[in-house]
Amino acid sequence: QVNFVEIGGTTVQTGGSLRLSCRVSGETYGFCIGWFRQAPLNEREGVATIDNGATTYADSVKGRFTISQDNAKNTLYLAMNDLKPEDTAMYYCAAVYGRCGVYNIVAGASYWGQGTQVTVSA
Question: Does the structure show a pLDDT above 90 at 19?
Answer without folding.
Answer: yes
